[in-house]
Amino acid sequence: MAVKMAMMSVTMLLLVAVVARVDARFDFSPILNSMLQQTDNSVKKDLDCCVICICALSFPPQCRCTDNRPYCFPSCKNCLCTKSNPPQCFCADIAEYCPIKSCWEKDEVHKII
């Protein structure tokens, strides 16, 4: 019985040593890099406008951009995205006025004269 206990102790010690050595060699950087790249894609730098801005009839008014895109605009402080591919993101910022300019204001074709 004592021999069996000694063999079990040696086996457990070797198993722990092998597992610790395998964990020490595992490189997490590819996984972390892919996760960081996905979060960087949720913000697009070239377009900062809103197509649909809705305001509640309250005093003061509470407005929010309701666009669903694969990214949020750069000035968004609270970006929420789905885990779908491509992601669907929207800005959950609420302000007393539309947080950003309308996309139509930047486009000369859609301006009302």
From TrEMBL:
Molecular function via GO: serine-type endopeptidase inhibitor activity
Signal sequence, start to end: 1-24
InterPro entries, sorted: Bowman-Birk_prot_inh, Prot_inh_BBI
Gene3D superfamilies: Cysteine Protease (Bromelain) Inhibitor, subunit H (2.10.69.10)
Pfam families linked to this entry: Bowman-Birk_leg
Organism superkingdom: Eukaryota
A cellular component term, taken from the record's GO annotations: extracellular region
SS bonds (residue pairs): C49-C103, C50-C65, C53-C98, C55-C63, C72-C79, C76-C91, C81-C89
SMART domains the UniProt entry points to: BowB
Keyword annotations from UniProtKB, A to Z: Disulfide bond, Protease inhibitor, Serine protease inhibitor, Signal
Residues in Bowman-Birk serine protease inhibitors family domain copies: 49-103
Family from the record: Belongs to the Bowman-Birk serine protease inhibitor family.
Name used for this protein in its record: Bowman-Birk serine protease inhibitors family domain-containing protein
Organism encoding this protein: Tetracentron sinense
